[in-house]
Amino acid sequence: MGGVGQVLVLDYLNPFWWLAVAILGFKLFALVDAATRREDAYRAADKKTKGFWLALLGIAFGLDLLFGLGFLTLAGLVAAIVYMVDVRPAIRALTNRGGRNDRNMGPYGPW
């Protein structure tokens, strides 16, 4: 059983169930975050376009829903991790959606 069936089985005692749900949730968070960012922020951060990241993360999420854990899951997980640790911080720094006021920030924190 793979894909959606693997998640819907609700086998709480199986560690692979928890792993599948966690990976699926992480990919969904990355996809929603990429969809909410502005298109021009991707170009300003000198990253790939918004459409590229939406397509990549959407395919990774969709394949994970269809086939479950496997090689494609790992490839999609790598794409989601790259987005979260490289692209997202660069875009947040440009759009200042971090919730802090950068005008009063020194090199080691607020002053």
UniProtKB/TrEMBL annotation:
<keyword id="KW-0472">Membrane</keyword>
<keyword id="KW-1133">Transmembrane helix</keyword>
<feature type="transmembrane region" description="Helical">
    <location>
        <begin position="15"/>
        <end position="32"/>
    </location>
</feature>
<dbReference type="Pfam" id="PF10724">
    <property type="entry name" value="DUF2516"/>
</dbReference>
<protein>
    <submittedName>
        <fullName>DUF2516 family protein</fullName>
    </submittedName>
</protein>
<feature type="transmembrane region" description="Helical">
    <location>
        <begin position="52"/>
        <end position="85"/>
    </location>
</feature>
<keyword id="KW-0812">Transmembrane</keyword>
<dbReference type="InterPro" id="IPR019662">
    <property type="entry name" value="DUF2516"/>
</dbReference>
